[in-house]
Amino acid sequence: PLVSMTEMLNKAVEGKYAVGQFNLNNLEFTQAILQAAQEENSPVILGVSEGAARYMGGFKFVVAMVKALMEEYRITVPVAIHLDHGSTFEKCVEAMYAGFTSVMIDGSHHRLAENIALTKKVVDVAHALGVSVEAELGRIGGQEDDLIVEDADAMYAIPSECEQLVRETGVDCFAPALGSVHGPYKGKPNLGFERMEEIMKLTGVPLVLHGGTGIPTEDIQKAISLGTAKINVNTENQMASAAAVRKILAEKPDLYDPRKYLGPARDAIKETVKAKMREFGSSNRA
Ligand code: G3H
Ligand code: ZN
Q1: Fold classified for 6-280
Q2: Among 114, 126, 149, 206, which is least packed by CB within 10 angstroms?
Q3: What pLDDT is recorded for position 145?
Q4: Membrane-crossing residues (predicted)?
């Protein structure tokens, strides 16, 4: 069923595992991620950035596509459709109106007071509709669609500010930037685990780890043990699908039927997602 993230994340904290947010880019991503979740018997969060929604045909189209596929595949595991890095109050409301069951309001580029005020405004509307909300503090480096943060501007979240934001807004989960990066890492990730632990203790809400691509398994496990219940992955699926397309087109230069190269891309995404679900411990937790 289509649900908010609230219950699946609270269960994840309790069971010491994390639910993956896998971003949608097109039809094949949506098919692959839903099938992977069902086959792994895992809860799943479908992340949709504003840029990806625009590419696919808008929020309403994305919701209709997800619902139709869930019916076609007889999906029984919990699925959330989540706006990833929502940029404004208006975008969040538009997503909720279209049927999204969850939204992230990314006010991390604002000053604390503005971030809190904006997040609170989104929470008030969302909770009246049974929609869950994720907020962010600090700055996650790298690039995702329209969102670019230079390395020099990447910032670790400050625990006392995190406590204040969560307390004053009532968000359902929270993404403190602690050194993770969107896209591939240059070198080894250097995650702020001490702050992560402190922030979990101070806020008491499930934590979210953005930039899940390229984080070593031991760091994933450590993050989960410190209260991380949601891990976002996009680039890794993009790379796997692009590699599959490159390989088949190189092998068969005469190939032109999109189903013949997008089918293998879809298979690659599905395998990548299944492996992540096992790594995050969400398999057989639906
Ligand atoms: O919000 C989406 C994620 O943080 C994706 O990060 O593309 O590095 O896996 P990634
Ligand atoms: Zn992100």
Answers
A1: TIM Barrel (3.20.20)
A2: 114
A3: 78
A4: none
